[in-house]
Amino acid sequence: MHPVWTIEPAHPQRASALAREAGIHQITAQLLLNRGVSSADEAQRFFHPNLGALDDPAALPDMAKAVTRMHRAVDNGESIVIFGDSD
Fold this sequence. Notes:
Elements: H1 12-22, H2 26-34, H3 40-47, H4 63-75
Helix pairs in contact: 1-2, 1-3
């Protein structure tokens, strides 16, 4: 199965306005718009994240199951491998 790419339409006027407000390149502004970032404040939070702005990890689906399983692994001396994805 081949991946399906969705190309968002460009919004040059919105990107230009966001670029001016946030002090960033217009292409960067368009990429932010594609990710749902639409204001200079949101752009600054995107580029300068902090732990206080993160969502509660307990709200992730099946987090309680994952925690229970990790506790069991620790109790049984099992290895734990964590895979991460940056996006």
